TrEMBL record:
InterPro entries noted in UniProt: Metallo-B-lactamas, Pdiesterase2, RibonucZ/Hydroxyglut_hydro
Gene3D superfamilies from the UniProt entry: Ribonuclease Z/Hydroxyacylglutathione hydrolase-like
GO molecular function annotations of the record: 3',5'-cyclic-AMP phosphodiesterase activity
Protein's name according to its UniProt entry: 3',5'-cyclic-nucleotide phosphodiesterase
SMART domains referenced in this protein's UniProt entry, alphabetically: Lactamase_B (SM00849)
Stored SUPFAM superfamilies: Metallo-hydrolase/oxidoreductase
Pfam families: Lactamase_B_2 (PF12706)
Length: 255
């Protein structure tokens, strides 16, 4: 199975895109600004969107996606997230004020958009050769990470999270773990902000990675613009033995 990074930055500008991964041809993980780089034909092929949480940098393109391709498709776009996250989207985005409620357009019986509750620990298979499982995450709003299992290897994405002891036993039990994409939003100088906004800084990342008991290729995501180089330098110092690499926009990861 193939994952293409459409966006992995903690902000925008200068070619940066916020979080979205295309998995296979029909599945998205999060719908940040990177989704806008797909062609209309590619956008129309998206059948399944798994959201980690409701923050704007992870959902920004969902309203535009469904409006752009809805009429070209013969089935709804299914959005999988916890009930808590779906409730936030219903109340604050698809509320007819910020955006029309595409769960009722063109009609409730055959809508362009469908919400599918997908809770922590739940697994689903959106396309052949891909099983998605929701993993624990701790953020300022309800959040999950995801395990993507091709049957051969698993790739784990933390989503936005801070220090979380519940996450690591689940990851350590994944026998076919190949890749871990983990966030580090801020540099060490911004530790107070990392704690307030429930993210990680390099020092916290090192504490977290010490809980990983399996070998894995480790990629860093969600670096905030303006402190990318410093944060990666600090990661190189604080977590050197894990050889973390910076995840890049456009990068392809096979698993
Ligand atoms: N006190 C705060 N709590 C949460 N987020 C904050 C705060 N101050 C600034 N932010 C920013 O708001 C952003 C919301 O999205 P993120 O969680 O990616 O990252 C967060 C921070 O960059």
């Amino acid at each position: 199975m193939r994952l293409k990074v459409l966006g992995c930055s903690g902000g925008i500008g200068g070619g940066m895109r916020t979080t979205s991964f295309l998995v296979g041809r029909h599945t998205l993980i999060d719908a940040g600004t990177g989704v806008g780089d797909l062609s209309v034909a590619e956008l129309s092929q998206i059948d399944h969107l798994f959201l980690t949480h409701a923050h704007l940098d992870h959902i920004a393109m969902l309203p535009l996606l469904v409006d752009t391709v809805g009429a070209m498709r013969d089935k709804p776009l299914d959005v999988y997230a916890t009930r808590a996250t779906l409730d936030i989207l219903a109340a604050h985005i698809f509320n007819w004020r910020v955006w029309p409620d595409f769960r009722e357009i063109p009609n409730k019986a055959a809508p362009f958009l469908r919400f599918v509750p997908f809770e922590l620990g739940e697994s689903g298979s959106p396309e052949p050769g891909l099983t998605v499982t929701a993993l624990p995450a701790l953020h300022t709003v309800p959040a999950v990470g995801y395990r993507l299992d091709s049957g051969k290897h698993s790739l784990v994405f933390t989503g936005d999270t801070t220090v979380n002891d519940e996450f690591w036993p689940v990851v350590n039990a994944i026998e076919n773990l190949k890749t871990l994409i983990i966030e580090t939003a801020f540099c060490n100088r911004e530790r107070a902000l990392a704690e307030a906004s429930r993210h990680l800084c390099p020092d916290m990342l090192a504490t977290e990675l010490a809980k990983l008991s399996r070998p894995a290729d480790i990629y860093i995501t969600h670096l905030k613009p303006g402190e990318i180089e410093l944060t990666m330098q600090e990661i190189g110092e604080d977590a050197a033995n894990f050889r973390p690499k910076m995840l890049k926009n456009g990068q392809i990861l096979d698993f």
